[in-house]
Design brief:
The chain has 129 residues and is of the alpha+beta class. The chain has three helices and six strands. Helices cover 24% and strands 33% of the residues. Helix 1 runs antiparallel to helix 3. The radius of gyration is 15 Å and the shape is globular.
Length: 129
Amino acid sequence: MVFSFKYTESGGLSNKYLLVSYDSATKEIKASTDMTGSNLVQKTLTDSDEETLRASFKGDRFFGFDANYQAGNDLEKDNDSNVLSFTLILTMGDKVHTVIWSNKSKEIPDELTQIKDKIKGMVSSKKMI
């Protein structure tokens, strides 16, 4: 079954950017910290690494998440430039689901934060970022 995802993280005071993508067809995980992709790093994952990532999505649970988790109303008052935005697109078999949120979003499922941490942990442990 096809398993792929694309995760992006951007914004904040330092205007950071991170893109991580994975495709089970090639077993390639790719990471870039530059919007142009000029510093793209790619590595081949082991079956065990792929299973770890696949398991972090907890089966079909991800497909039940809202598509967009809005920030609270206090964001406009604060005019906070330290907002990090996240996008995660998952393809599993013939299902595709996108979730968008920020570090100011309210009521984010714990599982979503765990998935984000698992993805970032994987590329960090492989010294890709």
